[in-house]
Amino acid sequence: MKKFRVIVTRTDEYVIEIDETQYDEKKMQEFRDQFYGFTDLEEHAKHIAQLRARFHSESFFEGYGVIKMNGEFPFHREGALLEPAINLIPIDEGNVEDIYCVEVKE
Q1: SS3 for 2-47, per residue?
Q2: How many CB atoms lie within 10 A of CB 36?
Q3: For 59-84, how does the pLDDT look when each residue is reduced to its tens digit (9 = 90+)?
Q4: SS3 75
């Protein structure tokens, strides 16, 4: 059986909007206490973007709940935690930049 090591490099681009009046120091501290030690909104934006890129989530984001996509909630389920202070706008997703492949010889 042949075996290959393949590296796919891709680019995803998003706009992440976060209402800074909602993410005040109290809410930031609550997030740090329960999830990650983020100290500014840029860290939240990076985290949300990588979750979207890795898992292509269109609904629930751990630590945030259901965030807006293009200004609207993608769904509303009874009891779902909605986070109106965050909006994710996909600009460009999954463009493969390069594929590197080499046969693995053992």
Answers
A1: CCEEEEEEEEEEEEEEECCCCCCHHHHHHHHHHCCCCCCHHHHHHH
A2: 11
A3: 789 999 999 999 999 877 777 899 99
A4: coil
Alpha-carbon separation of residue 67 from 6, 44, 53, 102 (angstroms)? 33, 13, 15, 40
HSE of 41, CA atoms in CB hemisphere, 13 A: 14
What pTM does this model have? 0.85
Q: Sort residue 71 into left (φ over 0), alpha (ψ -120 to 50) or beta.
A: left
Q: Domain segments of the chain: what residues?
A: 4-103
pLDDT tens digits for 14-23? 999 999 999 9
d(CA 106, CA 96): 29
Sheet of 60-61, strands arranged across: 4-18, 82-103, 65-69, 60-61
